[in-house]
Predict the 3D structure of the following.
Amino acid sequence: MPSFRSNKKIIREWIQRTDWVKEIPLPAQLDASTEMEIINALFACLPQGDIITKRAAYTIGLTISNLYKKNTEQAKVCIRRFMWHMNEESGNIGWGIPQAFGESLAQNAELAKVYHNVLISYVYNINSDSNYCDHAPLRVACYEGVYIMGLVRKEYRERICTVLQASLEDDPACLEFMKRILNEFQCA
């Protein structure tokens, strides 16, 4: 039975490959591992930053989407784990979580139907009772997660555009990223 430590080592080596592309399957050494064991090891890669975070987030999204086909409730547990990590009470800073959240929703339409508003809520400061991420560097990652989802799930772009346009004056720390999304999504 593979251990968390060995899975993490295999995944880190795989994800750091210079020839890594999305189409390369997970290493054969992980074949005996469950989706949850793979997801847990990938979670450890999320805070690494830059390309490692992007690759880990993409792979988590793909793995959660595959898990959804086998065990819908377990896939939802993974999404709720993202939500817990983004909660201040969790004690986590959440690095990489918004991108993994966005990738998971981008890669699974059913999960997106249920959870897209939660992801969007991290960038929408409606009042003190919201999920708004008040840590600007992490909020940029939240915008990135929303962007990742919106690239694939075009049906949510209108909602994304509405939220971003309402936030333009309230979020100078993330203004450039917001403008990029609004421009790319062709928001009116």
